[in-house]
Fold this protein.
Amino acid sequence: MMDGWATFWACVLVGTAIVFSGLAIAVAIGGFFDIRTLLKTIDRQHEDGVEEQDTEEQDTEEQDTEEQDTEEQDTEE
Amino acid sequence: MEDSIQLGTNFTNWDWLIVAVYLSASVLIGVFANRYIRNMADYIVAGRSLRSFISIATMLGSEVGLVTVMYTSQKGFTGGFSAFHIGLCAGIVPLIAGLTGFIVVPLREAKVKTIPEFYGHRFGQDVRVLGGLILAVAGILNMGVFLKAGAIFVTALTGLHDPMVVNIVMTVLIVLVLIYTVLGGMVSVVITDYIQFIVLSFGLMLTAVFAARQLGWSHIVETVKLVHGEKGFNPFFGGEQSGWPYVLWSLFTFGLVSSIVWPTAVIRACAAENVQVVRRMYSFSSIGFMTRFILPQFLGICALVYFWNDEVGRELFFTAEGGVVNDPNITLTAMPSFLAQILPAGAIGIVCAGMLAAFMSTHDSYLLCWASVFVEDVVNPVMGGTLSMKSRLTLARVFILLIAAFLLIWSLWYPLGQDMLDYLAVTGAIYASGAFSLLLFGLYWKRASRVGAYLGLISGLIAVVGLKPVQGLVRLEDLLKFQPSEAQIGLFSVGLSLVLTVVGSLLFPDSSAIRKKL
């Protein structure tokens, strides 16, 4: 019984190590290019002012929601 | 900690130099990344611009931390090969989440930055504030012992024996983390996570291969048979830390919670470029989630074998009857003490740098996460959402500093006086039991209501009973006439939270006006 489990765990360990090695190599290479793209994208967003608009819109939406909450509470009271 | 000193170490001044160079480079990256931070989206989710590979790297860079490595290796030491079932559980759930999109895809589609923000959209701002408070408090308490685990690692690996020196080293580390997290936010976290992922993943694999070659596979198996018997191989074999309840608990905590409910993991899904990236990230990260348990557990097993055959080691780590000593503070030191003995100078410095980098990586993500939750989900909603972007950014940085100060006091200077493993499990479950219920029903059941959400969150707090001192306080054994295991209590709190969310939602549904507004 124990030998069966030992064989199973050996397969799990070796399988994990092999698959993880492949993943680590792929991520190491692909991640480098992703970081370059990330920094370029953020720069571009700043130039376009896209995210700042989004954030300001979100702020406004949240304020609106809060105002609606207050109004409804007043009405209920 | 004192005991490990007797074992000796191969750590030299060259290894310290390697560690210093590596950590300094991490700080410089933070300073460099500061020029990319202009708003809250840049700071918390890196402008939502993360692509597949870097998402995987940053998720695993954060989740494969020194604390994880310490506790999982301890589990390998005390549980043998049967502890590998935790790794399988940890791999299966994110794979399913990646293939099906379960929870993580609708969360990304909701365009939220934090989980409590989702509560706010789905159940109302008051639920968001309560959920944010529970999450942040549970998370910060959970994190409160991380520095202690780091200190034990440094002591055992380097042979430092003056507690004051260890405290200073850990303080310097937390200050370095603060510098690059406060300055660079998620952008610096992403870049440093990437580097730390590479160093740690290759370091772990090479160390495991080296250890296996040193000890020999058949020797490892025979020693585990001798020390643990069948319990060392069969996870369903009875006992407090094994059997069906424990496997189910592992599936929930190490599988489900750690990958799709724990906010430091979920924030990666929120930061991903689109849902395809989320699916890919989870599918591939499942390999990493599995590996982060199995490789350190294997190192723990190797430590068991090594010290069983070492005269001094056997005296320190084993009882006279041949079992593993029942003291978590001692078994925690087994893996780093083992590495200190088998790795040559130079290699040990790289492993130490990788582990400390992972330690910093976990801290930067967690600091950023809990500070964001405080600002976005507690303070800002309480202030009526009136805080400007600049104020929120400043407040997030202030909270990071405050949390770091708390960690230093709590972890290093304050005597904890209780078992670290129980502490971590309970503080995590306080948040996760209710959070899973709210995410599940909030995303997939239209009738889930605000009252149901409140009941789900509050009933999740019952997980605190898993803490031994609390059990003593409420005389749990006398009340129930038996002593429930930690796994049974945890599963009960999850079940209760699910049931009460459903019952509360059915009995107190949201009015149509509220539903329309939400």
